[in-house]
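We treat protein structure as text, and this decision shapes the records that our systems exchange. We quote a single record here, exactly as it is kept in our systems:
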Amino acid sequence: MPTQEYAVNEFSLSTQPHFNLLRILGGWGNVNGPGLFMIAGMSAAAVFGLSAAMIGSTIWGTAALPFIVGSSLGFALGSTRWYVTATKEALLQLDNYPSLLRLHLIANFPWKPELGRKGLAWYTSDRFNSSWQMRSMLVVGWLTAQPALDDIRNRTEAELVESYTRQGYTDVEELGGKPEDE
């Protein structure tokens, strides 16, 4: 591998957010928590399926059908858990960033022109929690808003770190010393 290509790969690997493998396996690409919850859904399917297979083979001497039933049940339960958690997170983010989620809802549902006609005050968690259709639309908007929400979170974190760093330097300077370079 050429040195420059190695440096680029090393840089891109070190700058990627945590759990990229889990995001890919979860099938949600850029989603933080929900990708992990889809992994939990798949692992629930595996655990339920293998448990049912062991029980089925002990009782009936066969494991195929118990595995299929158990893994299907496990995936359904895991996916339901993911949806419930994603809905709660989407409602929370709607309260925090209504204009961002409004933008993504309008972009994702162009056949619903009423979403664009409503003002920002209309986009409340109570309204979107009123029916399963509204909750589902909000989850879709929240999923597509993830890159922007990640960017907001990263910038906020960087500002906090910078603030703490400046505060630490100020405290050292007030004591008459200089911060040491490590």
Remarks:
- Residues 1-96 form one domain.
- The radius of gyration is 23 Å.
- The chain has a mean pLDDT of 79.
